[in-house]
Each structure stands twice: as structure tokens, then as C-alpha cells.
Amino acid sequence: MAKWTEADIPDQTGRTVLVTGANSGLGLRSAEVLSAKGALVLMACRSPERGQRALEKVLATGGKAELVALDLADLASVRAAAQEVRERTGDALDVLLNNAGVMAVPLGRTADDFERQFGTNHLGHAALTWLLMPALRTRPGARVVTLSSLAHQAGKLDVADPNYEVRGYSAWGAYGQSKLANLLFARELDRRLRRAGADVASIAAHPGFTATELSANMARAQGNWFLEMGTKVSDLFSQPVERGALPQLYAATSPDAVGGQYYGPDGVRGMRGHPTVAAMSSAAKDDLAAGRLWDLTATLTRVTPDPA
Length: 308
Known about the structure:
The protein has helices at 25-36, 48-60, 75-89, 116-137, 171-196, 213-222, 225-235, 241-244, 246-253, 287-301; strands at 16-20, 40-45, 64-69, 95-98, 142-147, 200-205, 262-265, 275-277. By secondary structure, it is of the alpha/beta class. It has an 8-stranded mixed beta sheet with strand order 3-2-1-4-5-6-7-8, sandwiched between helices. The chain starts with 15 loop residues before the first strand and ends in a 7-residue tail after the last helix.
């Protein structure tokens, strides 16, 4: 694969893209780039204030963007956002970019009593994806792009206790599980879409080692000033958001991106660089586990899977 950059993104005029977590970091950068390429970007944000500031930043560049209220940690909000997007677009959505997430936070619960990282990073996005599938299915070559992480490689999925109700909680363990779930879900979704004959591709991506607000938010959430200082130091060695967003932009726009594939930086250990096919752990390739996660997700969210 050649060194792919933002300059390689085809014209996006006439396309509509929904980006979750679009108020900062990778989500905001993706919204800026896609709107500059001509797409109408629906910026799904939890905080109205931060969302409005991000929207104004995108609009100031001449891009086309609108806000959508979305709290992935609340399935009622997910359902409302999906319904709003379907009505606002007339059931015509070209790309769903599942970008938002929380990382290595202390044990907490979502509005629906799920472990916060599993509930936000995986369950919220999975439910949103299923609920928006009718709008994606109407558009030729539509895509669902789900952001995973290098942390998936250490992740272990416990389908018997995904919400840490029995086992001891580990902030990093829960994060790894949620990112493994993102990758398993993305690949299972693509298999089922192909089996159903749908013209929709499901693709996964990861940003490598990128300086975003996730690390700082994690340190603040843990109330650890030493960790917060370490995060600032590590950011000096990470790649900028402009580079980190490339794999998900590639997955969302490149004619060469393949459904069921996983893209990340091409540098050493996938930490930095330009988009390329990324390495997956053996757990991420476990089709049986992916099927069990699919069924578990349907049970927990009470959302009908699409495709069935």
C-alpha cells in the first residue's frame, strides 16, 4: 500500500457521514477532513457545549456539519439519536464512523447498568449500528467504520461476566475487553452483511499511538497526578491527531478499503505511520467468540440485530 494521506480522499460531495465523539480528537479531525471534502457531517456528541464549539470550528472552515445529541452510555439516547438521524437524512446514511470511547477509567456503570467501558465503547456503538442499518442499506457502498485499539491485543472477552459483576475490576483489562469487542463485532457484522447480500461494508481501524484527550481524561478520572504527568510526557512521543485519524479516514473513504479488514499505522508495532492492514490478535479472529458476542449484545441492549 502506498503512503496514503488525506490528499487521497475522493470527493465526498453528496455523502452523509455520522461521526460519534466528534467534539474532540480523532472524531473532530475526521469531521473536519470529511466536511472539507464535501460531505455533510453529522457530529454526534454527548456534551452540547463541547459539541457546539466543535461544530463552529468545522463550519468556520466552510464545511457542512450538524450536531446530533448522543450519549453512548445511555441506550435511550442511542435510540433517540438513531431515530433523529434516520428522519433527518431521509434514511440515507453513507458512513457511520464509530469513533467515540472512554479509556481505562475507574469502575462505573452506564445508565443501563453496564460496565462503563464495555457499555460505551461496544454496546452503545453496536446498538447504534443496528438501529441505523436501514439508513445505511439504502446507500450504494455504505460503510460502518469501528475504531478499535492496539489494546485489543491484550483484551480478553468474558461473555459470562462482561460487566464485571463477579470478577475483580481492572481499568486496563476492561478497556482491552471493550476494544476486542469492537473488533469482533466489526468483523462479525461484515460477515453477516455479506451473507445477507447487503451493499454495506463493515471495517475496523485503530489510530496507533496518537495524542488525544483520552489519555488525559483517563488520568483525571483516576485522580492520579503522577499518571497525568506521565501522559503529558508520553504525548511528546506520540503522533499527532492529523496522522492518527488517517486509518479511520482510509476505512471510511478509500475505494481500496475492504470489508472485514482492520487498518492501522504502518510503523513499528503499529504505533505510528500511514494506513496499512493491521495485525489482529488470535482472540480477534475467533469467529465463535464473535458469534457469542453478537448474541450477548442483542440480549443486553434489547435491540434487534440487523442483519438478523
